[in-house]
């Protein structure tokens, strides 16, 4: 059972040392007020949501006022102290995926959720007009709870989110019936969609299984 600390949260994509999103970040060191509204333990990680609460002129390019984004953070004492539901903290622009800061310390994200928001943030590319790209994902389950499984393996199309290291990445997968069948096999066609919900999908005979987060495996304790 995951440790679940429930409140109404909006956390960003978790930052990670394997992700390059410098082009999406604002001025290094710029701070935006955010509220932590939900924190859930997922094995070695904390999944959290941050909600931008600052005035428009204070908002950074990542955490705009009113924007809610999910992140994955390391399961460590400092992060558990900073990421408390309903806590008012600061999101600091810079680096890979920024940093969360409060009087209790600082915590860097190591993974991202809210993949639709990250997809829509990047400029459209020429290859986006060439149909729906597909590749093969191969993985093994490293963690399960009642809601989410974490799998580690090859997710080549993760690079469409400017994610570096898709050949060895941890992906968060919901525990839906379609996803359970994919998890049993450990291999599936992977596709990226430039429009609509669930941009990164594992294809299953009776539908599809969405990838809902990406985490850099080098961040595991």
Quick structural overview:
43% of the residues are buried. Helix content is 10%, strand content 38%. It has a 15-stranded antiparallel beta sheet that branches.
Give an overview in words.
By secondary structure, the protein is mainly β. Helices cover 10% and strands 38% of the residues. The chain has 3 helices and 15 strands. The chain has a 15-stranded antiparallel beta sheet that branches.
Please give the structural blueprint.
Blueprint: E1 4-5, E2 31-42, E3 45-52, E4 68-74, H1 77-82, E5 88-92, E6 99-102, E7 105-107, E8 111-112, H2 115-121, E9 134-144, E10 148-154, E11 169-174, H3 177-185, E12 187-192, E13 200-204, E14 207-210, E15 213-215
Antiparallel strand pairs: 1-2, 2-3, 2-5, 3-4, 4-8, 5-6, 6-7, 8-15, 9-10, 9-12, 10-11, 11-15, 12-13, 13-14
Low-confidence stretches: 1-25
Terminal Cα span: 20 Å
Class based on secondary structure composition and strand pairing: mainly beta
Number of strands: 15
| Percent in helix | under 10%
Beta fraction: 35-45%
Shape, per Cα inertia axes: globular
Assembly annotation: single chain
Q: For the CA atoms, what is the radius of gyration? A: 17 Å
Main pleated-sheet profile: 15 strands, antiparallel
- Count up the helices: 3
The helix/strand series, from N terminus to C terminus, equals EEEEHEEEEHEEEHEEEE
Question: If you average the pLDDT, what whole number results?
Answer: 82
């Amino acid at each position: 059972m995951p440790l679940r600390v429930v409140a109404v949260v909006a956390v960003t994509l978790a930052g990670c040392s394997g992700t390059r999103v410098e082009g999406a970040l604002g001025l290094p060191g710029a701070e935006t007020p955010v509220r932590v509204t939900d924190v859930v333990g997922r094995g070695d990680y904390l999944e959290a949501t941050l909600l931008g609460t600052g005035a428009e002129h204070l908002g950074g390019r990542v955490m705009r006022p009113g924007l809610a984004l999910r992140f994955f953070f390391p399961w460590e004492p400092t992060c558990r102290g900073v990421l408390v539901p309903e806590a008012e903290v600061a999101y600091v622009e810079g680096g890979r995926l920024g940093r969360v800061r409060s009087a209790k310390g600082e915590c860097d994200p190591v993974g991202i959720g809210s993949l639709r928001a990250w997809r829509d943030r990047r400029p459209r590319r020429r290859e986006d007009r060439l149909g729906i790209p597909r590749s093969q994902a191969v993985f093994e389950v490293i963690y399960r709870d009642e809601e989410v499984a974490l799998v580690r393996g090859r997710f080549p199309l993760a690079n469409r989110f400017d994610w570096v290291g898709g050949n060895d990445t941890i992906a968060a997968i919901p525990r839906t019936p379609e996803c359970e069948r994919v998890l049993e096999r450990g291999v599936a066609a992977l596709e990226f969609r430039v429009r609509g919900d669930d941009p990164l999908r594992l294809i299953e005979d009776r539908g599809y299984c969405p990838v809902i987060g990406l985490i850099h495996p080098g961040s595991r304790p």
